[in-house]
């Protein structure tokens, strides 16, 4: 049965997006808090290994066929490409958290909507943004810049991170990789693969590739975790790597990606709040103004054009 795509975000999609963004903001802080016990990329290895099992079980329960013969010809190649991009994104995120603040890395990571907005319309004309929507996108990013400006340029904790620029660069690269993953999913035959199977490609390839990255970085592997570390890894795997991404993949198949993408600007706000609460990362005085800008940007990007009266044919 063909997938029905909507031209706007309904209240259910908005609520789901907000829940995902809140958890993703918390997740960056959770990964950093767990680094004292579990090396960052090794965390990602374990996370996606468990996520792969959960997604595979979900596919079997939902009757999603996993064989290559059940998908469009050649789609598996794009699935592997999407999986490799996804794995590289998370290698950059987890490695980058060693060198910079969680909130600081997150603002660079969430440059992804700009890459989507710039690249996707070249392949999907219906995803083009109008002038006021570009204004909304710029408004949302201005909010992020305001909220995290101190952390980016004159943060008091900057001396504690002498290689902070490297962490920032990894965050920016991760944002580009995320944007490219979205473009691959939307513009190739991989778009006709079930969302659950799309996610399985991404977490499965990541589970296969990230151990190699962890070994290359010289990370120590151990499975003797505290209750906190075990709970953190399960939360990252089952909520972060399974439920929230499955929801995101489903929404990509039903709603406009460019309108969805602007919501992710809320994630750095949540990361800033959780980082201040848990890790003691400084809370910007401009946060309330930033939230107002982000809210304005979301309204502008999701604003629907006025319905024009159609004339009857002569």
TrEMBL record:
Gene3D superfamilies noted in UniProt: 1.10.3730.20
Matching SUPFAM superfamilies: Multidrug resistance efflux transporter EmrE
Family indicated by similarity: Belongs to the EamA transporter family.
Domain named EamA: residues: 12-147, 166-302
Membrane topology term: Multi-pass membrane protein
Claim: Transmembrane is one of the keywords in the record: yes
Chief localization: membrane
Keyword vocabulary terms for this entry: Membrane, Transmembrane, Transmembrane helix
Species, as recorded: Rhodoferax ferrireducens
Identification of the protein by name: Drug/metabolite transporter (DMT)-like permease
Pfam families, alphabetized: EamA (PF00892)
PANTHER family, per database record: EAMA DOMAIN-CONTAINING PROTEIN, INNER MEMBRANE TRANSPORTER
Localization: Membrane
InterPro entries: AA-Vitamin_Transporters (IPR050638), EamA_dom (IPR000620), EmrE-like (IPR037185)
TM segment ranges: 12-29, 41-59, 80-101, 107-124, 131-149, 169-187, 199-221, 227-248, 260-279, 285-302
């Amino acid at each position: 049965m063909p997938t029905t795509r909507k031209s706007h975000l309904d209240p259910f999609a908005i609520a789901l997006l907000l829940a995902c963004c809140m958890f993703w903001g918390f997740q960056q802080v959770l990964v950093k808090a767990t680094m004292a016990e579990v090396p960052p990329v090794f965390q990602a290895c374990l996370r996606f290994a468990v996520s792969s099992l959960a997604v595979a079980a979900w596919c079997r329960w939902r009757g999603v066929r996993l064989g290559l013969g059940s998908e469009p010809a050649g789609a598996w190649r794009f699935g592997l490409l999407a999986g490799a991009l996804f794995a590289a994104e998370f290698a950059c995120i987890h490695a980058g958290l060693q060198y910079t603040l969680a909130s600081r890395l997150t603002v660079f990571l969430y440059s992804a909507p700009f890459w989507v907005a710039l690249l996707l319309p070249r392949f999907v004309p219906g995803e083009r943004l109008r002038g006021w929507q570009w204004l909304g996108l710029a408004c949302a990013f201005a909010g992020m810049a305001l909220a995290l400006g101190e952390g980016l340029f004159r943060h008091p904790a900057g001396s504690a991170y002498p290689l902070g620029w490297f962490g920032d660069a990894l965050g920016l690269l991760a944002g580009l990789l995320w944007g490219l993953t979205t473009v691959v999913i939307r513009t190739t035959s991989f778009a006709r693969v079930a969302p659950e199977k799309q996610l399985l490609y991404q977490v499965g390839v990541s589970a296969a590739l990230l151990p190699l990255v962890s070994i290359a970085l010289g990370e120590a592997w151990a499975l003797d975790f505290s209750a906190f570390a075990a709970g953190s890894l399960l939360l990252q795997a089952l909520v972060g790597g399974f439920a929230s991404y499955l929801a995101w993949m489903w929404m990509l198949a039903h709603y406009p990606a460019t309108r969805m993408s602007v919501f992710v600007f809320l994630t750095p706000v949540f990361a800033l709040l959780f980082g201040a609460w848990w890790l003691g990362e400084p809370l910007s005085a401009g946060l309330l103004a930033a939230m107002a800008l982000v809210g304005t940007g979301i309204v502008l990007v999701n604003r629907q054009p006025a319905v024009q009266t159609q004339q009857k044919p002569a």
